Amino acid sequence: MGYGKTFGEFIIGKRKEMDMSARQVALAVGMTPEYMCDIEKDRKSAISDEYVKGFIRVLGLSGEELELFYDLLAIAQKTVSADLPEYIMENELVRAAIRTAKKNRVPDEKWVKFIDEIIKKE
């Protein structure tokens, strides 16, 4: 899935929406302005849980923005979005579905149909 932006670009966009400088966000999150610059330029992606929570708080992320934040960070870190592992590991059927899809190289259109079915049932 293409998001059209990197984690750093997302952070830049959100702070500009809030009319904040990189320095202001960095200090509010508790990091150095230099580290913030590296994050925004996508030179650093390994950020601590403390910084993640700080960004969420300072940038006022919620709903879809929060999911996008987690996804872009995970892509940068080459890992799974932080909001998913617990759910995946608590649900045997979710793990089985993901593994089955992986083994069978399920195309995007089948995933879209699957998601649409889930939404219809709610």
Properties at a glance:
122 residues, 434 Repressor (Amino-terminal Domain), mainly alpha, 8 helices, 2 domains
Quick rundown:
By secondary structure, the protein is mainly alpha-helical. The chain is 70% helix and 0% strand.
How would you characterize this protein structure?
It is built from eight helices and no strands. It has 122 residues and is mostly helical. It folds into two domains: 72 residues, Orthogonal Bundle (434 Repressor (Amino-terminal Domain)), CATH 1.10.260; 36 residues, no CATH class. The chain is elongated and about 45 Å long. The mean pLDDT is 92.
Topology:
Elements (H helix, E strand, L loop, with lengths): L6 H11 L4 H8 L3 H8 L8 H11 L3 H15 L7 H6 L1 H12 L4 H14 L1
Helix pairs in contact: 2-3
Strand content: under 5%
Q: Calculate the terminal CA-CA distance, rounded to whole Å.
A: 24 Å
Give the helix tally.
8
Q: Class of the largest domain in CATH? A: Mainly Alpha
Apparent shape: elongated
How many β strands by DSSP? 0
Measured as a percent range, the helix fraction is 55-70%
Judged by helices, strands and strand pairing, the structural class is: mainly alpha
Rg over alpha carbons = 17 Å
Mean pLDDT, all residues: 92
CATH architecture of the largest domain: Orthogonal Bundle
State the fourth-level CATH superfamily of the largest domain. lambda repressor-like DNA-binding domains
How many domains make up the 3D coordinates? 2
Order of helices and strands: HHHHHHHH
